[in-house]
Amino acid sequence: MKVIIVGCGKLGAGLALELIKKGHSITVIDSNQEAFELLGKDFNGKTIIGVGFDRNILDKAQIKYADAVVASTKSDEANALIGRISRNVYKVPRVISRLYDPRKAEIYRSLGIQTISTTTWGVQRVTEMLSYNQLDSILTMGSGVELIRIETPALLVGRTLNELMIPGETQVVSVCRDNKTFLPTMGMSLQKHDIIFVAALTASVKRLKSLLGMA
Prior knowledge:
The protein is 27% helix and 27% strand. By secondary structure, it is α/β, with parallel strands linked by helices. The chain is elongated and about 60 Å long.
């Protein structure tokens, strides 16, 4: 996955180093050359000096190929602008902005931008947001039933939720699209980047993976 991180403070640098370990392609943007010292000498990602909402800088970072952008500068206003440009102009699938003022959270959400706050929690949470597999078991309910989170595989884009149903074995619970979660109808067509939550018998998970082309 190609990730652009704007702002090389403790959060930005910590996140860049964590994601590099996981094998992702990382580009870090900061207006201060000295900020990149936090990355250490062994950092093998790309660094760019410049203002994160400058479209020339974003083009240099090849944002049109980015899977995600994380705005982690010291300014809420800059982070909001970077998030909005990334989301609305470049159509980046995942956009996350650091938030210092929690009162602005609703504004960020209305722009389709996820938010994070503290540095320690932020590094962990953003890594989770960006790094989950296409199919993750996120909750075990009693004995024998699991809640599974699925990122729509290419095989199912344009097809309906009915094709995920195995009577008596799986049940679609909800769908998250463009940062909004809703209860779907079974005839709904799936789109790229949809996140589907499915309750499934533990014994049926292997069969579900096969259905998704992940086996």
